[in-house]
């Protein structure tokens, strides 16, 4: 049974090349490595409309433990089909980028990596004058908000899918474990011992899609590393205290049944943000992986909301 479900490529068992697959989807795609100002080699991908000039640029940031080469691709492929040039990079310690797997000792440096890569794309002549947007899933949503704080007027808006603006109490270890881990992290930050439930299982609703997600050859399967968890706690507490300083247009999307990131924190972001243009969608019964892990019908609902929001902000822009 397991062998019959083996996926040789992110799109399935088909032997066609990646290039042929993209062509069949009416997009063109490329991949390369970008060396960040701190000298880190980061794997990047782009997905562009094949037959029309792009209407806008979307800079995408994946979540913890994920990467841009497997199921994540379904969203930028769709956005490229809708006319948007999409760009993403594997974060430090993720996917094909440099760094110890799933070790993120300093999120601020990761924010700098993303910011510099996105700006290098913006400066290309073929994209001059196009509106640019941020898109982030989970931890990527938090990184998008930090990029916004770094350059408050640099982007026309942000799409935040189940953003990690605070670690949900439902996945935090209970006392006294956090206190013990904080102490140990000072001496052994790379130690992968933080006790958490399998995030794939908690994120993805459809059983068949859990199998597909689990087939990702680049997925990190170990326990979270101490230093990464401490850093995510630090950053999300910081973000949670700065929600009222968010000023860019945004749409925040969250499932009511999400136990990885808290939909109430997204509600708090919506209420607190000083943005004049802000929207929120809480999807009844949906889980953390809104754009892959849900039924195809649910994924299409979320996609339609994203494209509708983008279309309204790209007209004449």
List the topology elements.
Layout: H1 18-24, E1 27-35, E2 41-49, E3 56-61, H2 74-81, E4 84-89, H3 107-122, E5 132-137, H4 139-150, E6 157-161, H5 177-185, H6 199-203, H7 207-214, H8 226-241, E7 250-255, H9 263-272, E8 278-283, H10 296-314
Parallel strand pairs: 3-4, 3-5, 5-6, 6-7, 7-8
Antiparallel strand pairs: 1-2, 2-4
For the structure shown, list the relevant keywords.
single chain, alpha/beta, Rossmann fold, eight-stranded mixed beta sheet, 10 helices, 8 strands
Strands, count: 8
What gyration radius follows from the Cα positions, in whole Å? 19 Å
Biggest β-sheet description? 8 strands, mixed
The string of secondary-structure elements, in order, is: HEEEHEHEHEHHHHEHEH
Question: In CATH terms, what is the architecture?
Answer: 3-Layer(aba) Sandwich
What top-tier CATH class fits best? Alpha Beta
What's the helical proportion of residues?
A: 25-40%
Beta percentage is 15-25%
As for the CATH topology, it is Rossmann fold
Structural class based on helices, strands and sheet pairing: alpha/beta
Give start-end ranges of low-pLDDT stretches: none
Question: Strand sequence of the main sheet, in spatial order?
Answer: 1-2-4-3-5-6-7-8
Protein name: Serine aminopeptidase S33 domain-containing protein
Organism: Macleaya cordata
Domain Serine aminopeptidase S33: 53-294
InterPro entries: AB_hydrolase_fold (IPR029058), Hydrolase_4 (IPR022742), MAG_DAG_Lipase (IPR051044)
């Amino acid at each position: 049974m397991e062998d019959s479900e083996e996926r040789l490529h992110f799109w399935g068992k088909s032997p066609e090349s990646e290039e042929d697959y993209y062509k069949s989807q009416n997009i063109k795609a490329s991949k390369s490595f970008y060396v960040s100002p701190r000298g880190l080699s980061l794997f990047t991908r782009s997905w562009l409309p094949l037959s029309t000039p792009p209407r806008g640029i979307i800079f995408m940031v994946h979540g913890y433990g994920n990467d841009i080469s497997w199921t994540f691709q379904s969203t930028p492929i769709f956005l490229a089909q809708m006319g948007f040039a999409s760009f993403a990079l594997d974060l430090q310690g993720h996917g094909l980028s440099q760094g110890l797997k799933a070790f993120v000792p300093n999120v601020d440096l990761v924010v700098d990596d993303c910011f510099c890569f996105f700006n290098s794309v913006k400066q290309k002549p073929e994209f001059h004058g196009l509106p640019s947007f941020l898109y982030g899933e989970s931890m990527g949503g938090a990184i998008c908000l930090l990029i916004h704080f770094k350059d408050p007027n640099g982007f026309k808006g942000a799409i935040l899918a189940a953003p990690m603006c605070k670690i949900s109490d439902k996945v935090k270890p209970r006392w006294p474990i956090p206190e013990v881990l904080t102490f140990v992290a000072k001496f052994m930050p790379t130690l992968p011992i933080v006790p958490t439930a399998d995030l794939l299982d908690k994120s993805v609703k459809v059983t068949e899609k859990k199998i597909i997600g689990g087939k990702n050859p680049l997925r990190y399967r170990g326990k979270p590393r101490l230093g990464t968890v401490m850093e995510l706690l630090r950053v999300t507490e910081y973000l949670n205290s700065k929600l009222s300083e968010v000023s860019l247009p945004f749409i925040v999307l969250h499932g009511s049944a999400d136990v990885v990131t808290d939909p109430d924190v997204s509600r708090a972001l919506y209420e607190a943000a000083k943005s004049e243009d802000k929207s929120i969608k809480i999807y009844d019964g949906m889980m953390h992986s809104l754009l892959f892990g849900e039924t195809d019908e649910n994924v299409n609902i979320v996609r339609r909301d994203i494209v509708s929001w983008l279309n309204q902000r790209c007209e004449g822009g």
